[in-house]
Amino acid sequence: MKDATLVVAGLLTLSAGTFAFRFSGPVLRQRIAFPPWAERLLEAAAVVLLAALVATTALTKGHGFAGLARPAGVLVGGVLAWRKAPFLVVVLAAAATTAVLRLLGVR
Amino acid sequence: MSSIYRTLAGGTLRDIALACLAVWFIGLSYGAIAIASGFPLWVPAAQSVLVLAGASEFLFIGIVAAGGNPIAAALAGLLVNARHLPYGLALPDMTRPDGTGRGWRRLLASHVMNDESVVFALAQEDLPRKRAAYWACGLGVLLCWPAGAVLGALIGSLIGNTNAFGLDAMFPAVILALIVPARRDRVTVRAALIGAVIALATTPFLPAGLPVLLALAGVLAVVIDRQATRRADRQATRRADR
To answer: Which residue in B140, B152, B192, B179 sits closest to B61, CA to CA?
Structure first.
């Protein structure tokens, strides 16, 4: 590992900054009286962020395509979730599909 | 904490436990990768407790191991974690189940905010359930992520490649399962689809974290589109009146 002091400084920067992000959202929300339509929009914004997170973590690795096995597993999970399968089934089916595809040599 | 058990249905608690188990597994591979990259045990241990945000920790370890400056790695990690600010804006106050919204509870409520606790809170119908799900999942991740990371660091070489078990498909599946019920709201669905396309299209060119933040433009697109439609409707009515 490189200079330990510098790593500690980086670690503390990341910790403190992340906490600042987590802390300021609720504080802002308390200080500002949002009208109901704005509150709905903010909630929609969180769903949009989560959906983008699903898309990028399912389909990409670094700056490129993640291969077929992972997106296929997530797709199976998504279809099951759409058909109102239990959460446990959705998550395990996604992992199992990806694992089986990789076992068969699909990347 | 007993109020969490009273408020949440057994099914939701079981789902949260499964999500935490998935976090624990990913923690195992995180700890193992950190050790394999040449870090001592205390780095993944301290990060998993203090940062408590998986993607940014993987990125930090990866950049520093590749010879990058740790401060630059921290800034890259912060870009990945910036989404926690809009998460906090989206949620109602999570700190006042019994009138005590100040002090350490507020600090802890902020620290346990993560993708899983936020999505479980959003998926609940009413405020007491949102709070209970948020705390149950947040505290569960606070225990499972460091526990997994430390164990992974200790038994590192025994773990091998966790991707063989499809574990990398679990995180997106967990989040997807919990946002699918939001399909009832058409505006949200359109915004989410536009946002996902923006994030995917920009991933090849932009640093990690930024594509997900740019997805917020999906919300703007829908708002602008709705206002334009409303204006057109009004003009049409006016013309019809004449």
So the answer is: B152
